[in-house]
Amino acid sequence: MQTLTITSIAAVFALASVGAAHAASASVDQAFVAKVSQGGMYEVEASKLAERKAVAQDVKDLATSEVHDHGLVGDKLKAVSAKANIAIDGKLNAEFSGKLSHLDALSGHAFDVAYMDSMADIHAKDGAAFAKEAAASPNPAYKAFAAETHVIVLRHIGAIKAAPAE
Q: What is the CA radius of gyration of the chain?
């Protein structure tokens, strides 16, 4: 009887540990999804502005690439997150809405400079988040998604750096 009770207690602790590990994993993935989904939506919306408002053709070309690539990345993130039962907020938070409003108020060369600075900043931050998730996510689907997307972000960083400073 005592052996059965000790075995039962051990089983309960084992299940609790698995549950706690799963909850911690979900929490890490939720934080990742919240961060990169907001960054991605911002990049798409800011780039749509740049397609209309940018003066330099290099800026417009980058914006078109951003809208295309981050639209596809966003769709893939939604699919992975749906399978993991992690919700994605479909609208920009206050921080990114403010950044978008700031860009929208600019025009000409000032817009181009602010847009490119913003893209450099968000790509650096999101690139770090994708690299971290690719290396450490306990969820294989997020790990693969992050690794694949990190390559895209690195390509965008190269394009941002290669754009002529005007």
A: 21
Token pair of 163, please? 């754009």
The CATH code of the domain that includes 128 is 1.20.1260.10
> Is 105 a domain residue?
yes
Picking from 123, 144, 125, 122, the residue whose alpha carbon sits closest to that of residue 135 is: 144
Domain count, the chain: 1
Contacts 24+ apart (CB under 8 A), 111-114: 111/49, 111/50, 111/53, 111/54, 111/55, 112/50, 112/54, 112/55, 112/56, 112/59, 112/166
- Encode pLDDT of 39-64 as tens digits: 999 999 999 999 999 999 999 999 99
157/33 Cα distance (integer angstroms): 21
Task: Give the global pTM.
Answer: 0.83
**CB burial class (10 A; 0-12, 13-18, 19+) of residue 45?**
buried
